[in-house]
Amino acid sequence: MGKNKQRKSGKDKITGLSVTFSDIGTIKSDVVYGTDSEVGRHSIESYNSYMQGMRKAVDVRVEFEFNDTYMVRTMWIKNEQPDNQGRTEGLTRTFESGRFSYENGRLKKAVVQSMGQNWPDGDGPGGIIYTHPGQGITINNPKSFTSYGLALSPLATVANKTHGYLDFGMDGSNDDEIVGLGESGVRSFGGGKIFYKGWEANPLASNLI
Question: How far apart are CA 185 and CA 164, in angstroms?
């Protein structure tokens, strides 16, 4: 994996932060978790539930970074395809931005204003940004990682989609779907620190935020 020259050196605003959720255990910022960890097992279970048999994750590497403004997750997955189609690898990065506060190793309060995802490979590379039109979504049960995710489902709607692109042909044209500023809007979000072009060359590097 190549070195990311766009990343500025430095530490997270909340250095060494760890957060314990009731259903996934303790997550430390800037730590890579594998398949045998509680975080890794939860990630595989969630992914397989979402894919509903189309693919099955057999290996995972996942890293979280969080501070009082962002929660970012980068995940590499090795999939097992049905019907003896072999194994494939996938990579994705997601984020939520808003206002986050912590107390005694737990997420005390979270209000999410925007969320997004970028997937640089697979059947159709692309990215998407959703932005809440108001003050954001307040997470009523921030102690549960599952509840945290479910509370954000109303944000991922067509009406809230502010930027997006999708390239089904995988030819780099990104002309199969364009929303808002398209790829440039996704790349530049958050000051260009999250989905900068080429992030997949060093996906599990720390200090994104």
Answer: 7
The model carries a pTM of 0.86
153-182 pLDDT, tens digit each: 999 999 999 999 999 888 888 889 999 999
> Looking at the domain assignment, is residue 127 inside a domain?
yes
Residue with tokens 């364009």: 178
Question: Which of the residues in the chain have pLDDT under 50?
Answer: 1-14
Cβ pair 72, 92 in contact under 8 A:
no
For residues 114 and 96, is the Cβ–Cβ distance under 8 A? yes
Compute the distance between CA of residue 128 and CA of residue 70 in angstroms, rounded to an integer: 16
The number of distinct structural domains making up the chain is 1
- Check residue 41 and give left, alpha or beta (phi > 0: left; psi -120 to 50: alpha): alpha
Element (H, E) at 187: helix 183-188
**Amino acid 141: pLDDT:** 93
Buried residues in 135-163 as b, exposed as e (16+ CB within 10 A): ebbebeebebbeebeebbeebeeeeebbb
The boundaries of the domain holding residue 187 are: 67-76+91-201
Q: Are 125 and 142 in contact (CB under 8 A)?
A: no
112, with CB counted inside 10 A (0-12, 13-18, 19+), is buried
Say if CB 155 and CB 163 are below 8 A apart. Answer: no
Residue that is written with structure tokens 């314990």 in the block: 20
- Hey, is 29 helix, strand or coil? coil
Tracing tokens 């990630």 back to the chain, one arrives at: 43
- Residue 76: phi and psi, rounded to 5, are -105, 135
